[in-house]
Amino acid sequence: MITALFSAATGMNAQETNINVTANNLANVNTTGFKRSRVNFQDLFYQNARAVGSSATEDTEVPTGIQVGLGTRVVAVEKIYTVGDFEKTGSDLDLAIEGDGFFQVNIPNGETAYTRDGSFKKDSMGRLVTADGNPLVPEIVIPQNATKLAIGKDGTVVVYMDDESQGMEIGIVELARFGNPSGLKSLGSNFHQESVSSGAPILGAPGSQGFGTLAQGFLERSNVSVMQEMINLIAGQRAYEINSKAIKTADEMLQQTNQLI
After folding, report:
1. Could you tell me if residue 228 is inside a domain?
2. Which residues are within 8 A (CB) of 121 and not within 5 positions of it... i.e. 6 or more apart?
3. Are the C-beta atoms of 8 and 250 separated by less than 8 Å?
């Protein structure tokens, strides 16, 4: 009976994590470029009161045995990198990636972070930066007298000066991709960082093999489905409740056993 108490407790702990992850998904439903997370569960050890395949008699074997599980645990919280819907903004500095890839950004500690958030701004030096002022890598500097900015699907950045009809290329927006993007380390602020699990970044121009293309004047919304997350939230709540009920039932059975003594 004690086993039931501890098994149900592991279920409550696991569902608490599940609900926390779901709540974070819902909180970021309007976060540009956000990718939803999914909780993966795994069952724990089993008590083998009777081993499978053990001898029942001299000529027969037990076909199934008696195995009692000891609960569950959260084994991974995985980022799902499906592409979100695109929102038209009309801003020349807004970029969305149609397909695989991340923008590269130089963060304050000098390291490179990766993001799907393409809502760039222009700082006092004309550099393309994030909302927090972190510059894009490689650096793109827009001349002060530029009147128009055009960024092609292949990442080519062209500016037009004053009334000139001929544009001038000033750089290329380079993307990075990973063999296992779910292995990236989340830093917050829409940033991710490479890890041993993600592998080293593979760099390339938008539209080249394995990389998505760029869409200027658009932003990628989060890939969170409110309806799906609400369903997950209800299912997690019900699972939490049923595990708490299992604890209550086990406790009542223990109480009845004590009354017989």
Report:
1. no
2. 93, 128, 129, 130, 131
3. yes
Cα distance from N-terminal residue to C-terminal residue, the chain:
16
* pLDDT tens figures, 147-203: 899 999 999 999 998 777 788 999 999 999 999 999 999 999 999 999 999 999 999
216 shares a domain with 90: yes
Same domain for 72 and 91: no
Long-range contacts of 190-196 (CB under 8 A, 24+ apart): 190/31, 190/32, 190/33, 190/34, 190/115, 190/116, 190/117, 190/130, 191/105, 191/107, 191/113, 191/114, 191/115, 192/102, 192/113, 192/114, 192/115, 193/111, 193/112, 193/113, 193/114, 194/114
DSSP state of 109: T
Alpha-carbon distance of 227 to 149, in angstroms, equals 38
Instruction: Please give the torsion angle defined by the CA atoms of residues 123, 139, 79 and 154, in that order, rounded to the nearest 10 degrees.
Output: 110
This prediction has a pTM of 0.86
Question: Domain check: are 165 and 208 in the same one?
Answer: yes
Beta bridge partners of 136: 105
Q: What is the span of the domain harbouring residue 206?
A: 86-220
Contacts of 242 by beta carbon, 8 Å cutoff, 6+ apart: none
